[in-house]
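Notebook, student rotation project (T.W.).
Task set for the rotation: take a protein with a known small-molecule partner, predict the structure of the complex, and write up what can be learned from the model alone. Partner molecule chosen: flavin-adenine dinucleotide. Sequence and SMILES entered below by T.W., checked by me.
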Amino acid sequence: MDYDVIVIGGGYAGLAAGALLAHKGYEVLLLEKSRSLGGRAGFMDKDGYTVEYGIHANRFASAGAAAAVFRRLDRELDFIAPGEAELWREGEFQPLPNSVGKIFRSSMLPFTAKLSAARYLGKLVLGNPAKKYQLSLEDFTAGCKSQETLEILRVISGIGIIAPDPRYSSAGELAAFLKKALRSKVKVGYPEGGTRSIIEGLREELEKSGQIMTGAKVTRLMLKKGIVNQVKTDNAVYSAGAVICAIPVQGIADLFGGKDLPIKFVKKARELVPTAGISMDIGLKEPITDKSGLLVTSDPVTMGQFTSNIDPAMAPEGRQLLSWYYPLPLPWVKNSEKMEREEQRLRDLLEEMLPDIWKVLDWERTLRLTMVDGFLPRPGQTREDRPGFTIPSIDNFFLCGDTTSAEGTGGDTAFNSAIHVSRLVDDYLEEITEEEEEED
Ligand SMILES: Cc1cc2nc3c(=O)[nH]c(=O)nc-3n(C[C@H](O)[C@H](O)[C@H](O)COP(=O)(O)OP(=O)(O)OC[C@H]3O[C@@H](n4cnc5c(N)ncnc54)[C@H](O)[C@@H]3O)c2cc1C
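Predicted structure of the complex:
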């Protein structure tokens, strides 16, 4: 064998799984098709700005999944607490009523709506979330007459699990998120130095006992006797005791040339619907606000942050960096007419909230993204529905990333899957070594 472990994909999940295994002393090779690391959490330097791929905050900060990975690596990961989240409604920003306490303090809600919203939030978090997995938020709130309650739940589902449409939001996935949020003192944190500090920290750890190759696209996986025995790129072939596939599961079957995998798995993986939408990153020549919390709109649900107000190092002095995300259904993102309309709608909304924004524009990057988080947490795509971490017919092949059945959404799922898979791979390699020793 060339290596103990080959990891395919250098996004959050592949880097984290590779770093965790390298930390245990395994020799790791990570193959990444792009020239840079980070995948959907990647970043670039642009005229003094650090431009990430849209907003990249970490749910639950030091109690979250990225921090859990760093603790296992005996490394620090520092977070900056953003300001309070605010909701743009009826022409003004107000504190976002995203907890029972804030609902009762909110001036935007009549008393009956406060009672109703608190009751629905309570009903959501009571009991086992798994029991509500296959229930949509729309069905869960079928008897609710309060428009304000429906609006708040839509917003919370939008920002919490990126599922703003109640027809396509699993009440159980939302409940699991809210339960975790209730237990966690800090709800959100921004990594000091941005996603760069996470990516660079993981890269450093991995390289202590492994190697990273960028510009190395895996084109084919070869199977022999239930084992992936060859990992092919355009110009090389590698082998390892275990292979971790940390690319979105939608593309895994292609690596096997469309064969060798169980049909049920291939169907489930290919049909997994991701979240999608418009991401706008905007550089501003002059500061236009000192707000540093999440800014949210409810109609439609969109969200943004002045990243450089949280961490000033993200923009040149005297300038500002704003990132905004407008979640939209995947079929819309593929329809250019619809997208032109929605982009204009977002631009108008931004101008309404921040009247000077286009007057002090330095640059703008607008992306129509067909994958933001790897799965839309709707009924049929919950933790109990998504692909697991192994494929029963292939012993040394493991799945990792934000399209697996790990807990959470987006980055949390990616990091949680890495923790889980690194344990599975460690156990598998130990078992193989013991068997080999017995044979000798
Ligand atoms: C605009 C935007 C905003 C987001 N905001 C947040 C947020 O605020 N909080 C949060 O938690 N999450 C957020 N996310 C989601 C988060 O970025 C992802 O969940 C996470 O980065 C997924 O990591 P991953 O490693 O599972 O997958 P990926 O990042 O997709 O990594 C897969 C890697 O595999 C590589 N690859 C693919 N095919 C091959 C191949 N054949 N050979 C070799 N390499 C290959 C890809 O180039 C990529 O680098 C956001 C995503 C976007 C796009």
